[in-house]
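Changelog entry

Holo records now carry the ligand SMILES as an explicit input line rather than a separate metadata file. Below, a converted record for S-adenosylmethionine, shown in the new format.
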Amino acid sequence: MGSHSEPHSASLAPPLWQQLQACATALQAVLQGRNHAQALSLVDLRLRPAAQALLFAVLRQWGRTLALKKRLVQRQPSAPANALLCTGLALLVPNEQPMYPSHTLVSQLVEAAKRDPATKEQAAFVNACVRRFLREQDALMLQTDVLPSAQWNMPQWWIDRVRQDHPAHWQTILHASQQAAPMTVRVNQRLISRQALLAQWEEAGVRADVIGEHGLVLHQAKPVQTIPGFAQGWWSVQDGGAQWAAPLLLKGLKPRDGQPLRLLDACAAPGGKTAHLLECADAEVTALDVDAARCQRMADNLKRLQLKAEVVVADAAKPPTWWDGRVFDGILLDAPCTASGIVRRHPDIPWLRRASDVAGLAAQQKALLHALWPLLAPGGRLLYCTCSVFASEGRDQIQAFLANNNQARLLPSAGPFLPGVTANEETVTDNHARDHDGFFYALLERRPDA
Ligand SMILES: C[S@@+](CC[C@H](N)C(=O)[O-])C[C@H]1O[C@@H](n2cnc3c(N)ncnc32)[C@H](O)[C@@H]1O
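Structure line, unchanged by the conversion:
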C-alpha cells in the first residue's frame, strides 16, 4: 500500500482467511465487469472495509498478477478459485509496505480455499501455485519486469495513451495513479469555519492539514461517521483537485439587475460541486443529471448539508426537454469521462475501461458542450471539466470547440492537474505535495456582444 491508508478498522478485524474470501468475492465481480462499489456491495457489511483495503491492494498489482499467473498456471481454474489465487499472488508481490508476512498470507489463503465449498477442491492447487511463486519469485519478477503492463500495473493501451498525451510526465502520472489517495474533505463554510472544525477534530484526535480555500487533508483516512460533524453537514469528502471547480466558475461572475446568480450544474450528481457552489454563493442552482438514482443521492447530500438546489432528472444534451428558455450566468459541465484522473481512488477503472470507450465519451462531451453553450448569457461563463488525464477529453476537446466557435473566449484557469506532477505550481500555488487527483479545467466566456 502507499503512504495513505484507506478506511479499515483493524481492532475488530475478522480472521484474515475470511477477509481474503471477501476480497476474492469482490474481485470475481470486478472481473465480470462490475465496478468496485458494486462488487463490494456483495460482501457482508462487517467484512467490507477490510475487503476494500485488500481489493484495492490487489487491483494496484493487477498487471503484475496477470503476468505472473500466466507463467504459473497452464489451465484456467474455476472463477472462485481463480479470484482467490489472484488475490494471493497480488498480495505476495514484493512491496515496500507488505500488508502481511508471506507465510501468514499463504496459510490463510489455503484456509480460505478449504472453508468455501466453491474452492475446497482446489485448495491444494492454490497452495502449490503460491508456494511455487515464493520459490521462484526472483526469476518470475525479472521475467515479468520487462512487460510495461506488469511494471506499471495498467493495460498497455492506457500506458500508451498517457505516454502519448504527457511525454514529459507519463511515468510520474502512472506511478502516482498506483498510490492510495489521501482522504480530503471540503468544509461547509455556511455551517462552520475551517478553524472551528479543526479545533473540534483536534479534541477528537483527528489530525488534518489545510489545502486550498476550503479543504482539509486527513493524516489518516477513517470511516466518515467516526469523524465529528459529518451527520451535521459540516463537511463532505471531496478531492483537492475537484475543489477548484466552484471558485473557478464563481470568480468574476456578477449578478445581473440585482437578481441572484442563475447557475446550471449540468452533470451534477452526486452533487459534490453543486454543494460547493451553494456553499460559496447565494445563487439559484439548477442541478441536472440523467441518472435518477444518483439524483436521489444528490438530494440526500444537499439535505445533509442544509443547501437547496432545483434537482432535475434530465438529459443535459437535450435542452428542449427541460429548459425554460432563461439563460444562465454560469454553467458547470463536469462531463462524463473515462475517470482516468481518479485511479488512485478507483483502481478498478483501468481494467474496466476499453480503449474504444475513450472516443465514445469524447463524443458525448462534445455533444454536451455544443448543446449547453447556447444556454449561456452573453458575458456568462461555462466551466468545462473532466476528471481525466487524457487529452481527447480535455485539451483537444476545448481546442476543437474554440476552433468552431467565435463567441467563446478561453480564460485562464488552474491546471491541468496531473497526479504527482509539479508542473502546474505556477497556477496551483498550494499544490499540497501534488497530492490531488487528475483534473482538466477550461473556463470559457461567452463574449458580451455575442
Ligand atoms: C463526473 S460525474 C459528475 C460528478 C458531480 N459533478 C460531482 O461533483 O459530484 C458525471 C455525471 O454526469 C451524468 N451524466 C452523464 N450523461 C449525462 C447527460 N447526458 N445529461 C445529464 N447528466 C449526465 C452522470 O450520471 C454522472 O452523474
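Spot-checked after migration. The first helix runs from residue 16 to 31. The first strand starts at residue 184 and ends at 187.
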